[in-house]
Amino acid sequence: MAGVMRALCGLLLLGTAAAAQSDYPRLHDVVGVASNDVLNVRAGPGASFPIVGELAYDARAVEVIRAEGNWGMVNVPEAVGWAALRFLAPRADGDISTVQRLTCGGTEPFWNIDILPGQSATIKTPVNYEVGDTFSVGLMRRAYNPLEKWVLMGAYGARNLSVVVAKTYCNNGMSDNEFGFDATVIVTGTDGYVLSGCCELSE
Q1: Residue 19: pLDDT above 80?
Q2: Which helix (H) or strand (E) holds 2?
């Protein structure tokens, strides 16, 4: 009986950990840091790791990609590191279903898309990098399958846009940063194309 109880407790702990990880990526605001101080970002999830960057005492919309213990993985310029979660407050509008802005990009060719769910999505590629193509888009919609995916659809004249965003590890090939969303962008119609890259939450 004791063995069964230990197994059940183990399953409950695993379930709790999985549920906690499902909360990420998510936007957070820095809290509880003095105005003359900064929130250190470290090379690993612990205070003994060297500092690789910092966040301002009033930094907003910081994307925590995933958590390990009481530490959250965040991106800083040209590096990825870990910040103490006790100084990072999750935002109510901070996950992919409620976020105000989503930005994605990739290489070969270099491209980016700035998405305002329910409003617009502007794609810039080497062909139109100055102004880009702006599509009218709907809201992000959940596609239910074992790998969490979200779909955004839109139109610009005779061209149609589909963006499929999967919640999974992604590296854009341009920096040492890590991302929690993989994206596929499909434009159909005249001069259609397909792009692949990574996304991050923004405001």
Answers
A1: no
A2: helix 2-21
